[in-house]
Amino acid sequence: MFHGTITEELTNHEEWSHYNENMIQDHKDFVFVKFSGLHLKSMENLQSCISLRVCIFSNNFITDIRPLKSCIKLVKLDLHGNQIKSLPDTKFWSGLKNLKLLYLHDNGFAKLKNVCVLSACPSLLALTMFDCPVSLKKGYRHVLVNSIWPLKALDHHVISDEEIIQNWHLPERFRTYNCRLFFNFCPALKKGSTYEDEINNIKYVISKINEIMAHNSPVLIVQRWIRGFLVRKHLRLPY
User: Fold this and answer.
1) In angstroms, how far is CA 230 from the centroid of its own chain?
2) Rounded distance between C-alpha atoms, residue 188 and residue 221, angstroms
3) SS3 54
4) Model confidence at 237: pLDDT above 50
5) Residue 224 and residue 215: Cα distance in Å, rounded?
6) Which of 11, 55, 62, 192 is such that its CA lies 20 to 30 A from the CA of 45?
């Protein structure tokens, strides 16, 4: 496991002195990289980190994320606060079969069409794109919610049934943006967090999203009630 990258920029950076240069040869085994706010411009050398599961490269000057194509084991990718204006094509995203959390807020995305390539990401559960020009587009949330099928949370709110089922007008507690659906799943980074901390956080975020949905999705509530009814009927228990 390693907590950094191997670019020339980083080897010249003062923080690199904390690491043993002999570890450079083992980059294919890195599972966790975290470099935030270091003015980095490239992710080129990450393409050989084939075991990478958590990648945090926030608040840098990244413009191209295609080097991550070979990092097919990624579960969490945090690229917020960079200078990314376009995303790779659907082939790139379809290869990231394990990616569940993707933080892209505070970047330069301006076109909905480009952002919709994320629909090819088969396991994406939570996405952030607030503070990007595209988030100001009319229908931004509607388009993303109905393009990325596995998505359960966008920006600071869990997705409501009302956003998925057309012309379904629900009571206030189930409505889009209701306070019950609010969840800040991308809080400020903690200094010194470890790989284990990140994995535990991923599990917590996913669990919390599912919990919110279970209590605030009429569809899931009805399904749960029907399953309970059928079980009681099968066991001949009183209703």
Assistant:
1) 36
2) 33
3) strand
4) yes
5) 10
6) 192
From CA 186, how far away is CA 129, in angstroms rounded? 11
> Strand locations in 35-140, DSSP E?
54-56, 76-78, 101-103, 126-128
What phi and psi, each to the nearest 5 degrees, are found at residue 112? -60, -35
- Mean residue pLDDT of the chain comes to 86
Question: Each residue of 143-152: pLDDT tens digit?
Answer: 999 999 999 9
Separation between Cα atoms, residue 123 and residue 80, nearest integer Å:
20
> Please, what is the Cα angle at 81 between 79 and 84, to 5 degrees?
65
Distances (CA, A) of 29 to 17, 71, 196: 20, 11, 16
What's this model's pTM, rounded to 2 decimal places? Answer: 0.84
- The whole-number pLDDT of residue 217 equals 87
Task: Please count the other Cβ atoms lying within 10 Å of the Cβ belonging to residue 50.
Answer: 14
